[in-house]
Fold each of these.
Amino acid sequence: MALAHQAAKEHRLMLLGRNEKVLKELLAALPGDHRMSICDVTQLEDCKNAVALAQKELGPIDVLINNAGLGYFDPLDQGKLEDWHHMVDVNVKGILSMLHLCLPDLISRQGHIINLGSVASHHVFPDSGVYCATKHAVLAISESIRIELMGKVRVTTISPGAVNTDFINKTHNEDIHAKMKEYFATSMKPETIAKQIMHALNAPKDSVINEILIRPFR
């Protein structure tokens, strides 16, 4: 939401999400001419419909922001297989679906791809091995875009540390959740990350910021 409020000042947006009520409220609060589409990135048909609607209503896609992501934190020997699969489906396959659908427009427009990575794209932490693996994959995807499509499309990986959102609330493990909840609650604001995304999008045209690594100041 923080990013939508900042980006709406400069771009026409196609808002994607699973919660229709939240999307409608956000759309109504934004200045300018924008659209929304109910979309679960684990469902390819949702992704196809959202991209097609964006192209029909707003024109070719100039910017793709792959923001969908989630994490479940558990010791590796206590992790649930369905949680591991869900993280891969959202954090990796969701990015790949949107990338594949939007890439032709992005190349033709010399557009910009923003992939949301994490400090976990660079480090592996206890109780989060599979989550870290998915975020390592995000960075690898960005690097492949940079190497193979240099001069054709811009790509930036935004890699934050802890941000004060409901991200940690997906974790089932009560001890880990309790330990991490206060840490996240006293960490960076979503607006901080949104400002860094806009900074990358507004970099001078003869340059591209390939990664921004952001940690809480403690």
Amino acid sequence: MGRIPRIDIGNQFYHVINRANARLSIFNKDKDYIAFEKIIEEAKDRYSMRILAYCIMPNHWHFVLHPKEDGDLNLFMQWLTLTHTQRWHAHYHSVGYGHLYQGRYKSFLIQNDQYLLTACKYVESNPVRAKLTRRAKDWQWSSLWRREDGSTEQKEILFSWPIKIPTDYLESIDRPQVEKELEFIRESVNKSKPFGSDTWLDKIVKKFGLEMTLRKPGRPKNGT
């Protein structure tokens, strides 16, 4: 089955991911992460992007975004990746040595309910699953660290979630997520498929004219 068409509709929720070319590490030291977060701040101000969650890993990154207008997602992501590529090559004196990223970013829609919470948890728990830290809140290069321990200025990059954050969020995020839950999120990431309930998926397919086969057997009723 081919990938579904890229959607760039305003006031929707998206999980966005991109990886380094050949999955090589592009964030090798603190200054690399700091430089990328500076670009995130610039891109957010330039395009008024609502950033709900993000996580920067050594060779890839994730975002959960809520763009305001049609086309804003692509404008934000294009500027972010192009600017990062240019500055990274300039810093490492590697201009002309090939692509920094493996290709264009991948994105998929997220249903605004428990599925959105699950997607944010999936993004912010990445360092724990990768065994880079025992507690997700200790990974400095993420929205979770900024939300919990960042300065007032650092927190300004983040937009409030439209759903309530559970009181046990910090504890639950460090526990291994249910394997079936991860299976459907990974399927969304691998195939750029919307992440939500069967009913919502049917509506999304019809609304945006997406040609896709919904894998209904075994799909969870909610995101947690």
